[in-house]
Amino acid sequence: MNAPRNLRFYLIASCLALAASLTLAVGVHAQAPATALSVLPDTEATDWTRSLVSIEVTYKALDAFQPWNTPTRAIRKQGVVVAPGEVLTTAQYLPTHTLVRVQKGGRGRWFDARVKWWDAQSNLALLTSEAPDFWKGLQPVELSSEASRGPDFDLVRWRDGNLENRRVEFGQFTVREGVLGFAPHVMLEISTDLTGLGWSEVVAHRGRVLGLTTYSTGRTCGVVPAAFIQRVLDAQRLGKFTGLGYLDFTWQPGSNPELLTELGLAGSPRGAVVHQAGRVKDPAFAPQPRDILLEIDGSPIDIEGDYLDPDFGHLMLENLANRTHFAGDVLPIKLLRGGKEMTVNYRIPRASFAEELVPRETFDRPPAYVVTGGLVFQSLSQPFLRGWGDDWRKYAPLRLQYYQYSDTADGRKSLVVLTGVLPDVFNLGYQDERFIVLDKVNGRTIATLADLVEALGAPEPGADVHRFEFMRGQGLERILLDAPGLDAATARVIQFYGIPAATRL
Q: How far apart are CA 27 and CA 59, in angstroms?
């Protein structure tokens, strides 16, 4: 589903996604100004110098407007030893890494490392190193299973070669999408005046790890809770981690008592109302529009769309897809349909970027593109939109952002965009056209770059031009290029502009 699952969740996620993009600045992140270090004793002393690790990641960055370029950049983050030969950290920047190095003690020698495992939706990763000297003197820490509310925690990190331990305040437990993924799960928010956070720093309580930071904005810092981390790691080590899931139907709070009455609910107001069904249309296996969600996995749903979690308090119902389950598990949902109570066994879909019309990440391949006659085409994705910088939601073209929240009328699963024109005599008159969504080429509907290449190989019968048609309402309706001269023009353009190849799929 590309429409927001519910309005409240969408507004929260949008604000926090903007905060995350501000935290994840490209390049080696700037260190916070030096201040006096304050080492505060834990209730149960832990020698963090023997467990905390510095990590340097060199990775391939995306050049949104010249996708044939693959610049490399580097960032530094934190990690913590959680088992012999394993360093836990967040997955940010690891999917496209070219080199990972680790350092112990906050200074000195760097050791080559490799990524053992990473998962975008949970934003977790495990590293290891083949260098025996790196592991000497290091010891694993304990991940806390408690859902502590503080009121104070310790935030521990290496900073300028020194171990910094500062007090931070408990904020709240909430449910939100991860920095890399879109599967909602429980998060801990802390309040602090510290800057430069969000780089997998350890948040601890009584000498045990409570979680790892993932984003920071203002005085609020998001933390992946250790209880959630431990459950994912346990499943991964047993080979039973099938990925995080999500509820693919949309819903709204049941706060309108008249609507609940109209839908046949008797007694006190409760439950959330389904707005739109997900991919499973069979009413025997999935909620349908105008159903009232009464219980999910045995947890009653209130009119805010929340349930009472035994560990974290009141949380949004979205968390129930990942509280004790993973993708592919069956989630019993008790609902009211047509005035009658019933239970459907809903199979939790796996959160996958491939299911999105505008994928939020494209980790599995280098940036794809097609250059033909000087016209540059790319698949529409959020990494491309982020090419407008930290404030991309403000500056990226609205006609492209629109497709993040609305499916296409014909149901195509992906989109191709004319992202620019490299000026040449062959495309004279079109050199200013850009950021418009391709609809058809030579009469064929285009959903992927492979579709585009195939259509260019088969001009319309009897035509001596290639016809590029664009989605209605975007200004330019079509571009016509001379068919016999296209190949020669493409060869001239890629040679003149130093492009390694006309096509990368």
A: 10
Find the farthest-apart pair of alpha carbons in the chain and give their distance in angstroms, rounded. 82
| Inter-residue contact 317 to 306 (CB < 8 Å) | yes
Distance, CA of 462 to CA of 465 (rounded, Å): 9
Concatenating the DSSP letter of every residue in 190-206 gives EE-S--S--SS-EEEET
C-alpha R_g of the chain: 25
Rounded CA gap, 302 and 314, in Å? 10
Say if CB 307 and CB 292 are below 8 A apart: no
Total-model pTM: 0.86
Across 177-323, the runs of DSSP E, i.e. the strands, are 185-191, 202-205, 208-217, 220-225, 250-253, 272-276, 292-296, 299-300, 306-309, 313-316
d(CA 294, CA 333): 8
SS3 303: coil
Beta-bridge partner residues of 124: 119
pLDDT digits (tens, 9 = 90+) for 67-97: 999 899 999 999 999 999 999 999 999 999 9
Domain boundaries, the chain: 7-237, 250-347, 355-504
Write down the CATH number for the domain with range 250-347. 2.30.42.10
